[in-house]
Amino acid sequence: MRSITVIMGKDYVPAVPYASCIECGTGTRSHVIREPIYEPYLQETRVRFEDEEDEDVPTVKKWELTEDAEVMCHKCWVAFREKTFKQLRRDGKSWIESPLSNSQRIKSFLKRWQDFAFDEEMADEEMNEMVEQLKESIRRSARGE
Fold first, then answer.
1. pTM of the predicted model, to two decimals?
2. Distance CA 70, CA 123 (A)
3. Contacts of 73 (CB under 8 A, 6+ apart)
4. HSE toward the beta carbon, residue 111, CA cutoff 13 A
5. Tens digits of per-residue pLDDT, 74-112?
6. CA end-to-end span of the chain, whole Å?
7. Cα(25)–Cα(78) distance, rounded to whole angstroms?
8. Measuring CA to CA, how many Å separate 12 from each of 6, 35, 88?
């Protein structure tokens, strides 16, 4: 496991480590799907003397990487984005018209849309508008309209 040392006692926010693309395995950190998880721990900075209490020994806060980040290279992300857009163009209108019968597909699609940040990175106005219509149709069906 890798660990990161605190700098001047402040909480340190590490950069996303270079990791393998979840699609092709290429090393990257282009598109972060899930942030890495670090667990903090205290490490003593010197040998403990006899009869010393915990609070008497100087420590430094460090973080240990417990779960790697999930990342996708830009090439795979763009291909996956186009595949997702194609699905939305194909199925979006029918999902909007009958959201109740397609609720699981819509839920899965919206989670993927959010996880891969298609609405923010290289945003497409037409696709974002269709996703908003999809969300609104789900809200209306949940209210019984």
1. 0.72
2. 21
3. 21, 23, 24, 26, 28, 30, 31
4. 7
5. 999 999 999 999 999 999 999 999 888 888 999 999 999
6. 53
7. 15
8. 6, 15, 40
